[in-house]
Amino acid sequence: MKSGDNIRERDIGQMEHCNQLSIDGVEEELEAAEVQDKTPYNGEVQTIDRCIVYHDIDEEWVEQCRNEWDNCQEQLERLEQEAAVLTQDFGGTLRRVAGEFESGRLQHRFEDGIELPVNPKEEFVLTEQMEKEILAVAICGIWGEQAVGYDNSVRVNVNQIRDHFAPTFNVPPTRVNRVLYYLTEIDACDHVEDLTYEFSRDHISEVLSIIQTVRDQRVEEVLDDVDENHIPDEQQATLDMVSDEVMANGSDEDEEVVDDGEGEMNDNDEESED
Question: C-alpha angle 130/134/138, rounded to 5°?
Answer without folding.
Answer: 110
